[in-house]
Design goal:
Blueprint lengths: L1 H11 L18 E8 L3 E2 L3 E9 L6 E6 L7 E3 L3 E5 L4 E11 L7 E10 L1
Parallel strand pairs: 2-8
Antiparallel strand pairs: 1-3, 3-6, 4-5, 4-7, 7-8
């Protein structure tokens, strides 16, 4: 009973949870942990899947920009996975960039490799 009497004033006081302009903005945090490659190595001409694993991102507006060896330009997806045909023999260096599409946060990138065999 003594505990309840002690907590009662805390329960009866009003708490103001209103967000104001003075409050700092919520920071969206995206961290790339790894890119999973399946299969690795992959045979020339076969399909290979890349999955970008991010750490509990709080950013609701992500886009993935994939620069895949052997392909010109960048392929953009809203999913964290892309599947392409393996077209360049040997060890392939690649980059995925995760972008906040609202433009509020700068992007993060991650280099990864996979091997293509005959």
């Amino acid at each position: 009973m003594n505990k309840l009497i002690f907590l009662l004033p805390l329960l009866l006081t009003s708490c103001d949870w209103t967000i104001t302009d003075d409050d700092p903005p919520v920071e969206f945090v995206t961290e790339i942990l790894e890119v999973k490659v399946s299969p690795n190595p992959v045979k020339l001409g076969d399909m290979v899947t890349f999955t970008c694993v991010i750490k509990d991102s709080t950013d609701p507006n992500l886009e993935f920009a994939w620069a895949i060896s052997g392909y010109q330009g960048v392929t953009r997806t809203v999913e964290n996975t892309i599947t392409v045909k393996a077209i360049t023999l040997g060890k392939n260096s690649n980059i995925v960039r995760v972008v906040d599409t609202t433009g509020v946060k700068t992007s993060v990138s991650f280099d990864f490799e996979y091997s293509v065999i005959e």
